[in-house]
Write a structure and sequence with these properties.
This protein has two domains: 78 residues, Alpha-Beta Plaits (2-Layer Sandwich), CATH 3.30.70; 68 residues, no CATH class. A hairpin with a 4-residue loop joins strand 3 and strand 4. With 191 residues, the protein is of the alpha+beta class. The chain has a four-stranded antiparallel sheet, covered by helices on one side. Helices cover 57% and strands 13% of the residues. It has eight helices and four strands; from the N terminus they run H-E-E-H-H-E-E-H-H-H-H-H.
Amino acid sequence: MNTAAFLAVAAGSCLISASASARPRMSPALPSFRGICEVRSSLPGRMRLYIPSSMENPSASAAAAARLHETGVIKKIRLNPYLGTFLVEYDPNQVEAAVLEGAILKLLGLDEQIQKKQTPLLQEHLHTLTLAVDRAVMDTTGGWIDLGTAASGTLLYLALRQGARMGFVLPGAATLLWWASNIARRGGEKA
C-alpha cells in the first residue's frame, strides 16, 4: 500500500515538472502606471495593456496601432475601445517588451503624463474631505467662519485657557498660540 502511494506521488511530481517546463516563461515585469498604462499580462511575444485614454480617443489609438504595425516587429494589434485594451503580438527576438510599451506610450502622448508627479489617493480624498467640511462650516455659520478660522479660534481659545491656568511660560501654550497665528495668517490661502 505504501509503495503504491509512493509511486503515485512520484508519477504526479514528474507530470507536474514536465508540464511546468513546457509552459512559456514569463517575461520580466513591465512597468505599470496606474490610470495611464497598466500591464494586464505579458508573455514573450504577447502583451495586453489597459490604457483608459484609448476609450476617450479611439482614433488616436488606431493611428498609434497603425504606426506600430509599420515597424515590422508587430505581428498583430487588437484594440478594444470599449475596454481600453491593447493586445499586442510581436516578435520577441526583434524588440523587448519594455521598448514596445515605451513606444506605445510615446505614440499616444502619455509619456508626459507619466513624468508628472502623481498625488496619492489618500491626499486627494483628505483634500476633498477638507473642502467639504470647510463648505459645511461656511454654510452653518452663514458665511461668517470657514474651517481655517474655526481651527485658529479653537487653538487660540485652548492657548489662552492653558496660559491662564498654568501661565504663558509653558511651551504648550506658546505652541498653541503659534499654531493659531499661522492658521490665521494662511486663512486666505485656499488650496
